[in-house]
Amino acid sequence: MLIDLQHKIGDYFHDVFVNNIDWWVLLGVVAQALFTMRFVVQWLASEKAKRSVVPMTFWWFSIGGGALLLVYALYRRDPVFIVGQGFGVFVYLRNLQFVLRARARGEDTNSGPG
């Protein structure tokens, strides 16, 4: 019984990660890697500053990864993914706009409300 379950699980993962690989899946993997990098750069910047900060690269990775994931979701015709990534990209662009405006005024873009 456990051996059958092990084989079924192995067959499932082989089908998902080997048989279903195409250029769109590779695009999705790259997009997800970009999206994940936003957390890595935010974490590293916060560790360096010894406080929570959101560097500009966080927003660029958010936009790049989110936009590519949106393209992937549109291709896959996944309405949940499309709505989530579409809204997310809008929010990332808006936040980047806030950061750029604050920097133009010479403000610290990593300080939150008092």
Automatic annotation (TrEMBL):
Gene3D superfamilies referenced in this protein's UniProt entry, alphabetically: 1.20.1280.290
Pfam families with a match to the protein in the record: LAB_N
Entry's Gene Ontology cellular component terms: membrane
GO biological process assignments: lipid A biosynthetic process
Key words, A-Z: Membrane, Transmembrane, Transmembrane helix
Superkingdom to which the source organism belongs: Bacteria
Residue ranges of every copy of the Lipid A biosynthesis N-terminal domain listed in the record: 27-98
InterPro entries recorded: Lipid_A_biosynth_N, UCP028440_lipidA_biosyn
Transmembrane segments: 23-41, 53-75, 81-100
GO MF annotations in UniProt: lipid-A-disaccharide synthase activity
Stated name of the protein: Lipid A biosynthesis N-terminal domain-containing protein
Protein's organism: Bosea caraganae
